[in-house]
Amino acid sequence: MLFYGGFKRHLTVVEKLYLWSRTTAALWNKLHQATMGNSGSNSLGIPRGKGPNQVGCTDLMVEHTVKGSFLRLYYPCVESPDAEMPFWIPSKEYFTGLADFMKINRSLSERIFTYLYGSFKIPAAIDAPFKPNGKYPLIIFSHGLGAFRTLYSAICSEIASQGFVVAAVEHRDESASATFYFQEKSVTEEENQQGTYKTTVAAESNLEKVWMYYRPVEPGEREFPLRNKQVKQRADECIKALDILTEINSGISVTNVLQSRFDWTTIENSLDMCRTAIMGHSFGGATVIESLCKEFRFKCGIALDSWMFPLDDEIFPRVKQPILFINSERFQWAGNIIRMRKLDSSTIPRKMITIRGTVHQSFPDFTFLTSHWIGKILKLKGELDPQVALDLSNKASLAFLQRHLSLEKDFSQWDPLLDGHDDHLIPGTNINILQSSI
């Protein structure tokens, strides 16, 4: 649920601003000032990780078909002052996918998105050398509905800077705005291209890219069967990512379908596979619960503003690992909280906190890349400063991970956050529900 509610309803405001602004140069300048903020583009950007490690990132696709696995890995890297950073949105097809997801005009929205977001980069060095330093805990991250692997780079970069390896899966259950895989070219296509130069992101020249876009609920279709099927596939994809990284850590060679300078052999024996966790936002929060039920190698889970609708009630008693729910103040409702509360246990640690002045979009990167008033219109920002909000979420997550992965870190300094002890936190939830409803 990346663009739940306001963003989908109010993007037409930005469309109108864009069209009107093209009528005169003066109005265009006004739009530029409004979208970029009073101090220009330098006031916007994805924050760098605050931990002691410089962060690198690289993409991995194992098996070229739709049944394969696709992820972006964030990791502590060897420091380099002139490191290249990748664009936040990897290609224009992702803008197309966002337009389809929000049911707006493709060509117009591509211009809007390119103008607003096309120049931003992720604060991580692409394909930078891996930094060997003992064994790193591993986090698998699951994105929300309509998102994809790069949209939570602020969270992933911060966790990686603190000494973790984070694998952000790009789901192929048709819940992402866009994703891609490869298929083999026909003999005719290969013959036609002989003697010509053609760029490709595939390492093998006989493959061509196939785009997969978001699949909406059809008129008259019941939503639960679709979402329940998707959350099961999402969990399987998270587990498959864990399997692949386990193989790499064991020294088993894997073939990356994508062109990459990253040396995957440097990760061998550098991941602590006894300390793995899963994390996700919205639909990704539901994926956390489903994955914990299916895979006991995940020692704990963190669900950010989880959307519980896709889950079967019957799985709740089978989840045995600790869970931390971090919710926004404006998104949750009684029925959703009741389903979270069904996971309460007297013997298994289950925590819930709510961040005051936040909205559902306080977790993805969009909240850092949109000016104050546009962010408010599109419900990408709450009343609380986005950096303060995400700092609280990240610190609580790190404290939880230290506690339940038995880490020798200093994250326990943030333990009080897990009980809601901060002026910007609410212990549990701000939603009033009857105990008899749980």
TrEMBL record:
Q: What is its EC number?
A: 3.1.1.47
| Gene3D superfamilies cross-referenced by the UniProt entry | alpha/beta hydrolase (3.40.50.1820)
Q: Which UniProt keywords apply?
A: Hydrolase, Lipid degradation, Lipid metabolism
Residue positions of the active site: S282, D305, H360
Q: Which Pfam families match?
A: PAF-AH_p_II
What taxonomic classification does the UniProt entry list for its organism? Eukaryota, Metazoa, Chordata, Craniata, Vertebrata
Main enzyme class: hydrolase
Q: What is this protein called?
A: Platelet-activating factor acetylhydrolase
Report which reactions are catalysed by this protein.
a 1-O-alkyl-2-acetyl-sn-glycero-3-phosphocholine + H2O = a 1-O-alkyl-sn-glycero-3-phosphocholine + acetate + H(+)
One annotated GO biological process: lipid catabolic process
Q: Which residues form a coiled coil?
A: none
Would you say which domain of life the source belongs to? Eukaryota
Question: What InterPro entries does this protein's entry cite?
Answer: AB_hydrolase_fold (IPR029058), PAF_acetylhydro_eukaryote (IPR016715)
Alphabetized GO MF terms: 1-alkyl-2-acetylglycerophosphocholine esterase activity
